[in-house]
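Protein record
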Amino acid sequence: MVRSEDRFEYAFFDLETTKPTQPGQECIILEFGAILVCPSTLVELDHYYTLVRPADLSSIASLPMRSNGINIDTVASSPTFQEIADEVYDILHGRIWAGHNILGFDCARIQEAFAHIGRPAPKPKGTIDSLTLLTQRFGRRAGNMKLDTLAIHFGLGRQEHRSLADVRLNLEVLKYCATVLFLESSLPDMLTENDPTTSLSTQNAGLDPLHMGPLSNEMQEELNQLDAAVGFLEPDEVLIPSIYASLVPWYRGSQRIKLLHDLQLCCRHMKLRFGINMKSDLFDYSGRPKLDIIADASPNLCKVLDACDDIASKLSVDSGSNSEWRPVVIRQYDYPAVRLHIPASGDIRIYATEIYKKEPSGTEQRLIFTKFDKSELSTLFKQGSFMDAFFSLDPYDYQQNAGIRLVAKKLVIHSMNLYF
């Protein structure tokens, strides 16, 4: 295996594991495969593959035969994970990790495997999860976005569920998706005219296909609303073990904490504890725009945010920071709450958050603002009203204060307000 000093390659990898047959049972790694890829050409530079024998073969003796042919007989003479740990560490540590659903599964299994043998796990320079990426950029047209579904969509055959073959299939799927998206970006007008879904809708509605303006606008508005929600997870969909943090390069040689799950959450029907604070200044002491709202936090949301806090705060201490860590969940009230930050755009004149008003009928109307002025929002964000919040988690360390800021990407305010 080629070892690189500057670790510039993408490390695409995949695991095959046992499937738990009862609650609480761990997944046992049975196969590891990885390909080092040049980031500028996606050309394969090197690869590594091996079956893995569990430390206790009896632990898989009663498991059913896998459809991919991996069973107790095929792994009996293979090395254990402890015997391949040096190789796996060298492949992954300090490189950008890539793969399909690695943030939801494979990354956590790697951490568990190294923990079981009492060794530090490798840390990535960054992560590329093609499931998240393609759901955001290519979603809806290819079904459930599983690798097998995408492969069938592009006529690439079926997924083998063997680690090295699946990594190569993942790369091919990415290339096909990128090509389609590149071509579509070059032909925006033709897409609306030739899209079979649009043609079918026109026929069903009895509309003249040569006069598609109103229908096209309506469809595009609906797609824009859907796009804003793609990539966001409900709190109960988050796999806690897959969340971990790392230090990444930042301004002028400094470092900052990054939650490598790239976690974005969607919390629907959140109740506003307080509306816009009209008494506070619009800018903080550093001159940055400051506009926050406080909403009640559900138990599932608290569980996820507390886990992120524990992981990020520990890394903050380990990195030598002496800043005071501020928990993201506020527990000074009778019910846990969170503070959602509404940022301004780069020129600090308008809101960077998409803000919608939801009518009782369920339709959403995007609100357009011309300036960053909290008085405009005071009639919308009222105490006791409900909203759907889509937000990202942004760790910060500034002037002796550190923590995780919840940055609102999209807010949907329900027009029917219920007051305390």
Q: What stands out?
A: Confidence is low (pLDDT under 50) at residues 189-230.
